[in-house]
């Protein structure tokens, strides 16, 4: 890919200019030429990604959903973008070690390096808030790294647009933009919380094709990062050790396959070696053996109760206490854990843990460092059945040299007014965040 010149700003949505009408003629002419076209030789530029962003933001308020293909043609733009991004993502390891930020910092000619790592939590299809976040934090560039902690789709009305913008940045700057998988990047969640129906509504007879391509891309999303050797990020959090022990082989029979089963009598924290061997392409349960690890990373939650235990509230993953946070940080010589996964609706049911009104909480403070929950979707969820909205702020974290382990928090409010949109799921029946999951249905969707 061609190296773009550093860029730090993008025009954010202008609340005064947002026309909440729907349909042709309800807004001004598009800000860029549409339909978009794929650049020659597939060489993306900052300007192309900006044009994609501007076109999608305009379409969100000027066009009905079914006309999105007039902006992003499936064959000539969507397919090459997703294919190119998928090839990059599938080649990345389960846990991506981001050490280039150290090198970028040390090679800076200034005495105070401008290198930054921006960590972003759940976005949930809130396109306009993503655009504002990028305008405030600065666009990805050679000295501005981004780590996105998953949950790009579902619940919000513009999950596809949000995901496409992030894929474009990944293709443009594959070693500066890192996209992790969230629990909503799955077949089950997207069938329940709206993304599948969103895609079908926006692309009609080609919707099934677009949805399948998105699922294939989800399979390639890595599970975790380690930033500068000091900071661990993942969507849900920590994971168990899965020690595989051979079962007994019947006497007298040769060449029989030895089956392995996980020893789960006593839960203990896993290692990065175990994480590296997990098969992340399993989109939904059943997770077995080493593949319990992706389920833990995507679904687990912190607790104030010591120890490691099954996450019975969600039915998947683990709960871990401050002692586990200390053990994990100390064992791997880390200073921070930054995870996401819990919005204001989930946190109001978690005694002892802070709410999500500022977009982040510091959940554990231990001798070796801290555990932080980061949520980047303000005024979440977009569609709320409760009388009073949560009106939470979103947040992102900036990590700076020399050690990249002293988090700088940036809270922001939702862009208002949002363009009018219809929900793609029965939000009145799905108030809680991913609780009491139908595991049988999850298996059936696999």
Automatic annotation (TrEMBL):
Disordered: region residues: 1-34
SMART domains to which the protein is assigned, alphabetical: PP2Ac (SM00156)
Keywords, alphabetical: Hydrolase, Manganese, Metal-binding
EC number(s) on file: 3.1.3.16
Keyword hit for Manganese: yes
Domain Serine/threonine specific protein phosphatases residues, every copy: 180-185
InterPro entries per the UniProt record, alphabetical: Calcineurin-like_PHP (IPR004843), Metallo-depent_PP-like (IPR029052), MPP_PP7 (IPR041754), PPP_phosphatase (IPR051134), Ser/Thr-sp_prot-phosphatase (IPR006186)
Pfam families reported in the protein's UniProt record: Metallophos
Superkingdom of origin: Eukaryota
GO terms for MF: metal ion binding; protein serine/threonine phosphatase activity
Swiss-Prot/TrEMBL cofactor(s): Mn(2+)
Family as reported in the entry's similarity comment: Belongs to the PPP phosphatase family.
Name of the protein this chain belongs to: Serine/threonine-protein phosphatase
UniProt gene name: PP7
